């Protein structure tokens, strides 16, 4: 495989620190979830990145299947804790399809295909529980 893009982040202080990128002016304060401090947490960043990647993968699938609709992707990332320090993530991806003649079932099939294509979905498969749903408005 050829590399299409690569970036490097630098984080100091973990969830209560600072993060920046080597190839961008993006620089953010990291804050623990629920702290009400100004900044962002890793789960928020995962939700945004996964949502953007998934919508792009859906665009590829729509092109492959000659399907047309406007899509909005809502991605929910939950940080879960069981006994002690046993943490895991849970992800829910919900696609809202508009401006289409496709049925809800047809859209859901395309969403499921996007889940097979999306690099984030491939990276999380068998590691994070991911649920993909859709609706037609």
Number of strands: 6
Name the CATH architecture of the largest domain: 2-Layer Sandwich
Could you state the CATH homologous superfamily of the largest domain? K homology (KH) domain
Number of domains: 2
Strand content: 25-35%
Secondary-structure class: alpha+beta
Total helices: the number is: 3
Low-confidence stretches: none
Question: Order of strands side by side in the largest beta sheet?
Answer: 1-2-3
**How do the helices and strands follow one another from N- to C-terminus?**
EEEHEEHHE
Helix content: 25-40%
Give the CATH level 1 class of the largest domain: Alpha Beta
Account of the 3D structure:
A hairpin with a 5-residue loop joins strand 2 and strand 3. The chain folds into 2 domains: 40 residues, N-terminal domain of TfIIb, CATH 2.20.25; 95 residues, K homology (KH) domain (GMP Synthetase, Chain A, domain 3), CATH 3.30.300. Strands 1-2-3 form a 3-stranded antiparallel sheet, with no helix packed on it. It has a 3-stranded mixed sheet with strand order 4-5-6, covered by helices on one side. The protein has 137 residues and is α+β, with helices and mostly antiparallel strands. The protein is globular. The protein is built from 3 helices and 6 strands; from the N terminus they run E-E-E-H-E-E-H-H-E. Helices cover 31% and strands 31% of the residues. The longest helix is centred in the middle third of the chain and has 23 residues. 20% of the residues are buried. Helix 1 crosses helix 2. The termini are far apart. The mean pLDDT is 96.
